[in-house]
Amino acid sequence: MRLVNRAVSGAxxxxxxxxxxxxxAVVADASTHTATKSASGVTVAVSVLDVPNKxxxxxxxxxxxxxxxxxxxxxxxxxxxxxxxYSVELRTVGDAxxxxxxxxxxxxxxxxxxxxxxxxxxxxxxxxxxxxxHYTQSGQCSLHAEVEAYRYTVANGxxxxxxxxxAATFGVRSASSLSKPVASPTRVVRNHTTKITGTGTYTRxxxxxxxxxxxxxxxxKLSFQYHAAGSSTWRYGxxxxxxxxxxxxxxxxxxxxxxxxxxxxxxxxxxGYSSLATSVGAY
Length: 283
What we know:
- Keywords: Signal.
- By secondary structure, this protein is mainly beta.
- The protein has strands at about 1-5, 5-10, 30-40, 40-50, 50, 55-70, 75, 80, 85-95, 105-110, 115-125, 130, 130-135, 140-150, 160-175, 175-180, 180-185, 185-190, 190-205, 210-215, 220-230, 235-240, 245-255, 260-265, 275, 280.
């Protein structure tokens, strides 16, 4: 840990829970990332959730999961049933918060002889303790899984020696937010122009800012999108560059009643966000 300006910067790996339990499959959603690889009848599948970086103490349930499937035991010529034995390692790599390029092992199991699933929760404690603000560094990471499997038999056809690896990316990011766009005027003569404005913010986390709401930096880019009344398909209407104090503005020609929104894609350290939609009528 590093003490700077009374703020302690912590790595994500330092917060990994050591208690591991077997649970049903993770329900997939927009923040779930998965990867699967098979070789010699051995399959390893990983899934990992993006980690929201925010103040306070909280737990990301079912943060990471690894499942290993192995072939059935081999009936050897001496009458013995020989199973596949394997070890499995989960390691986070990437930005500093995940252990850098060398990574940090978060799960290791060995001498396994049955297909199995392991799930890890993740608890983070970004609180102020004894006058010191503790925070987690944001960053882009990968969860790597490696399985080493083997089986040696007397009879031919039973030997197995395989190393299977796969990886899924995930982010540790603070939140962003976009105000609902404001149109002025909200009704125009068909084929006339209205001006649409809004503001973008994000949660800043660094040595001098403890989960502070700040404006999106000038130069940040937003995707301007629209759809006509009666349609639900959003269309790209150009890129908006954020100015000072997180403000942006765009003039649009209105050909009919139209809905508008902006979308921020995010960065390695800040999550993306889609604004609410505003409508402009035409007559």
